[in-house]
């Protein structure tokens, strides 16, 4: 079993070939391909954490779609002053399909 932990969109994700992940918006190249940096590689019983060896590892992904996350409502309130503020936010996300770990 081969899997890797990659840095994607400010977080770390465990990925295998064929899995799909949702990360913060990333831009792919003109063919919709993205290369993600590996933090850890597990190949059977071999675990690789050395930065020099991980620089040679290529984790490739294909952009499936760009989407937006759920609406988050931010409310601020101060007692006895009449201050109320309301704001909304939707994060831009990208769905990726992992195509290869080499």
TrEMBL record:
SUBUNIT field: Part of the 50S ribosomal subunit. Contacts protein L20.
Domain of life per record: Bacteria
Cellular component GO terms held in the UniProt record: cytoplasm; ribonucleoprotein complex; ribosome
Record keywords: Ribonucleoprotein, Ribosomal protein, RNA-binding, rRNA-binding
GO BP annotation list: translation
Molecular function as annotated in GO: rRNA binding; structural constituent of ribosome
UniProt keyword rRNA-binding, yes or no: yes
Pfam families (UniProt xref): Ribosomal_L21p
PANTHER family reported for this sequence: 50S RIBOSOMAL PROTEIN L21, LARGE RIBOSOMAL SUBUNIT PROTEIN BL21M
High-level lineage: Bacteria, Bacillati, Actinomycetota, Actinomycetes, Micrococcales
Similarity section: Belongs to the bacterial ribosomal protein bL21 family.
Protein name as it appears in the record: Large ribosomal subunit protein bL21
InterPro entries in the cross-refs: bL21-like, bL21-like_sf, Ribosomal_bL21, Ribosomal_bL21_CS
Function: This protein binds to 23S rRNA in the presence of protein L20.
């Amino acid at each position: 079993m081969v899997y890797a932990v990659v840095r994607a969109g400010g977080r770390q994700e465990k990925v295998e070939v064929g899995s799909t992940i949702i990360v913060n918006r990333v831009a792919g190249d003109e063919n919709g391909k993205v290369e993600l940096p590996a933090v850890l590689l597990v190949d059977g019983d071999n675990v690789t954490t050395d930065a020099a060896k991980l620089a040679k590892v290529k984790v490739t992904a294909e952009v499936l779609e760009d989407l937006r996350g759920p609406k988050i409502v931010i409310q601020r309130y101060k007692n006895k002053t009449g201050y109320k503020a309301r704001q909304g936010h939707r994060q831009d996300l990208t769905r990726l399909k992992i195509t290869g770990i080499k």
